[in-house]
Amino acid sequence: MLTRRGAILMAAATCAAPTVRAQAAEPFRFALTPVFLDNDAAVISALRAALASAMGREIELVQRRTYQEITGALLDGSVDAAWTCGYPFVQHRAELSLLGVPVWRGAPLYQSYLIAAADDPATSLADLRGGAHAFSDPDSNSGYLVTASDLARMGEAPDRFFSRAIFTYGHRNVVRAVAGGLTRSGSVDGYVWEVLNSVEPGLTARTRIITRSEKLGFPPFVARRTRRNEAGIQACAAALQGFDRTDQGQAVLRLLYLDGITAGEPLLFDGIAARMADLGGG
Amino acid sequence: MKLLRRFRVLPVTLRVPLISAALMILLGLVASQGVLSALGRVQDARLSEAARLHVEGLSVALGPSVLRQDVWEVYDILDRARAGNAGQRLLLTVVADERGLVLAATDPRRAPVGKDATEFEQGAVAPQAVRMTGDPTLRVTAPLQYQGRTIGSIVTELDVTDLLAERRNVTLWLLVGNALATALLAFGGWLAVARILRPVGALVQAMDASGGAPRPIPAAEIPQGDPGLARLIQTYNQMTTAVEERAEAERRLADRERFVSLGRLSSSLAHEVNNPLGGLLNAADTIHTYADRPEVVRQSAELMRRGLGHLRDVTRAILDQNRLDRAGQPLRPEDFEDLRLLFEPEAHSRSQVLDWQVHAGAASLAGQPAAPVRQVALNLLLNAGAAAGVNGRVGLRVTNGGDGLSITVSNTGAAMTEADLARLMASGPLPPGGGVGLRLVHDIVAGLGGRVQHDRIDGQTVIRVDLPVHGGKDA
């Protein structure tokens, strides 16, 4: 298997096809965030190659720093598809539709981990009061919503409960912040932590999992609902869901430690919707 | 001071190498100091440059994040900069905001976010002023400038253990190298100086050897490469030869004097025996011829008795003579003849011209005791002979001057040395070395109430001894 450091993936795909712009000559624009993986060149080029091969057209991978930027780009049509998080998908369920949901360890589900330094005596979220905390992204389910909604259930808010809450815009960065001692604790994608535990055991060894959330819908590939029936978007969905049947697709799945990509159901994300309700937001 | 005194009594063959070794050590120390100070300057410059680049690079990268107070971004930049410098000298970098509070640090456990950064700035200097102080950790601080204004500060701890170790290693190698070089050069210096000074050592040994009797140094040991030393040793060898010749001459003279005395004694004995011998033989013949004539026999017997009595007197006189203290004998012209007999062969052996003038009459000579005067004259003559050298000229003049006797000995050749003059003219302690003949002359003349004068006239050394009249006639 190819080596790579931060490996996780992200990405989403949109297929959008405003009639004006749906011209075969134009590249298909697919947006990713570094929230999952740290711009791993091997993953990005493998993904581009697999998509291009399966879709029979040029792929332009667009990278943005935050989920908010990805969502905005999806909604304003500047990208065709994206790999984003379940939280923005639920937030914009009316405008977005699923192209596929990755299958990890046999299911399109993952968990959020609450982590602290390896030598930290805390055993629950309540023990972390007064310490600094690292979130990954304000629109991340595992990197923000889970912990924030848990605090809301305790009648707390992150700004009051923690002495300082910082956003690192990357799950690997959350692990780095906790391992390096910048913050006492962090909220991280369980899938990312586990993959990191395989490829960078020295980093995760300096952290300890305090609590794991219930299983929630894996970050999905999405596109605008209004463009769901466009040929490009359809081709994209078919390409993603067929990764496990092509060599290039399997290479991508190996790099991302995924089993495959399934069509998925919006019901997968009901857990996230419940937490959003607890938080009092969307 | 005690050490200095002890050093001064060391032999010169040890002192010179020691001094050269000390100078080498001094030179080594000065050179080492120079090297170390140059190394220190180089290290300081390296350190200062590294610190300046680090701080400047961070300033550029951190500016926007610090302005936004973005803790993660600042930490991320610092952390990646630290990872890029893995194994190098950056121990800790702390970024503080305008209020002096820690925004982020490479080690958040040491410098937690929000902590007062003042304690990290203690002892910190500007990057261009950073210098090695012997401390393994140095701190550098610089203001964080962005868009023309100061938005915070950076403090960096530098690990200079490697530089200190490098300096220690250089010091050690310098020390070892210099010690070896100094030892080697000092040993070489000792060998060279010992070799140069070997003839001097040989000279000292030769002078001290065999209980004060100086022995000459073999020609093979004379250093031809050093004209000064060669001349010194040649002069010394000439001196030892002169001393030997002098001793040999004295021995020969003593032998000769014994033989002369013996000859004179035997001739006078023969003469005294021969004189009555004819008479005695006549008397014996007469008795034989006229044995029947009692008067004739009586007369002849009487004659024989007188003759034999004379012989008895002669033998008694000889016995008496030999029993007498000769020092008490008055001086006679024959004494000077004896001296001439003794000295002439010496003068001839050197092809010297002898000017012998005895003008004093027997009467005036008789006013002096024979033995001491002979000794004085002989010593002065031997000395003059030695000084005149080959083909020189030696003179003796004995005159009846006023109410005393004057003996003048002159010679060509080199003037007397100060040491010799001191022996002859003064009564002070004897200078070391040299013979005792001249001092003996001085002492005898003084004992006789006389005086010695020395002159150097027309290339000649003239020694004049004036002796007052003694009651020699009565002695």
Describe this structure in words.
The complex is a heterodimer of chains A (282) and B (475). By secondary structure, chain A is α/β, with parallel strands linked by helices. Chain A has 2 domains: 12-108 and 218-279, D-Maltodextrin-Binding Protein, domain 2, CATH 3.40.190; 112-213, Periplasmic binding protein-like II (D-Maltodextrin-Binding Protein, domain 2). Chain A has helices at residues 41-55, 67-76, 86-91, 141-153, 158-161, 171-180, 190-199, 201-204, 231-241, 247-255, 270-279, and strands at 12-14, 28-32, 59-63, 81-83, 96-103, 109-110, 112-117, 132-135, 164-167, 185-189, 207-212, 216-217, 221-224, 260-262. In chain A, the strands form 3 sheets. In chain A, strands 1, 2, 3, 4, 5, 13 and 14 form a 7-stranded mixed sheet that branches. In chain A, helix 1 (41-55) links the parallel strand 2 (28-32) and strand 3 (59-63). Chain A starts with 11 loop residues before the first strand and ends with a helix. Residues 1-23 of chain A have low confidence and may be disordered. Chain B is of the alpha+beta class and 475 residues long. Chain B folds into 3 domains: 11-167, 2-Layer Sandwich (Beta-Lactamase), CATH 3.30.450.20; 235-324, Orthogonal Bundle (Helix Hairpins), CATH 1.10.287; 328-474, Histidine kinase-like ATPase, C-terminal domain (Heat Shock Protein 90, 2-Layer Sandwich), CATH 3.30.565. Chain B starts with a helix and ends in a 7-residue tail after the last strand. The A-B interface holds A 132, 134, 163-164, 166-169, 173, 176-177, 180-183 and B 71-72, 75-76, 79, 104, 107-109, 113-114.
